[in-house]
Design a protein that fits this description.
Length: 224
């Protein structure tokens, strides 16, 4: 009995497997931006829906980030959420927009309504055209010639309400539910495509690894 072992072929295949593995990691790095953008877009939309749902359940805490009397309505949002990608991953930030609606009993929109109420910034109201300022307090109409200072225009329940829901989304829903339910976590934990393309990697080496790694991470979006 005689066994023939082609050491040169074996060495070539082993080198190609090493190069394939290195290429896979490089491909993942190159495709990471595509993956992060996909997750970023989907996360922003889910987060807005999450905030709207919480606002409808608890309007006393979140009415200030919507136009008057439209709490929880997507078309009446006074907030926006954006994301950026970097080598460190995804970053999200929020911003507020100006209100254009007018509250009953007023003549002009409440300037910077969302931000002022969210941060609990005191507001001083002064009469403009008239000599007397008129407003309602506890169901009664009050008249005064002097300015009126409102220490917390939104109330204690409103102050910081948006920030609380923002943090709740990432600390609870995103980490504990979204990544699991969407399938992203499971997909990333088990790169099956790496094993599937191993035979091709033995022949093609690094180039196959790069294309496989890029395709794997780029496809790791929702529904993965």
């Amino acid at each position: 009995m005689k066994a023939v072992f082609n050491s040169n072929q074996f060495k070539k295949e082993m080198n190609n497997i090493v190069d394939y593995s290195i290429g896979f990691l490089e491909g993942v790095q190159k495709g990471k931006t595509v993956f992060l953008k996909t997750v970023g877009l989907e996360t922003v939309e889910l987060m807005k829906e999450f905030i709207d749902s919480n606002a409808r359940v608890n309007p006393d805490m979140l009415h200030h980030i919507y136009e008057w009397n439209q709490t929880g309505s997507p078309s009446a949002r006074l907030y926006d959420i954006s994301y950026t990608t970097s080598n460190l991953g995804l970053s999200f930030r929020s911003s507020f927009s100006q209100s254009t609606s007018i509250k009953n009993g007023s003549r002009t929109p409440f300037y910077d309504k969302a931000r002022i109420m969210e941060e609990g910034i005191p507001v001083t109201i002064r009469p403009k055209a008239a000599q007397v300022l008129s407003f309602e307090e506890n169901g009664e109409t009050v008249f005064t010639q002097g300015p009126v200072r409102v220490d917390n225009p939104g109330g204690m329940q409103v102050e910081g309400g948006f920030e609380k829901v923002f943090d709740m989304f990432f600390n609870r829903y995103f980490s504990q539910a979204f990544l699991r339910v969407s399938g992203i976590a499971k997909y990333l934990e088990n790169p099956q495509v790496y094993k599937k393309d191993m035979q091709a990697g033995k022949k093609m080496g690094k180039s196959k690894g790069i294309s496989t790694g890029y395709r794997w991470i780029a496809n790791a979006g929702l529904g993965a």
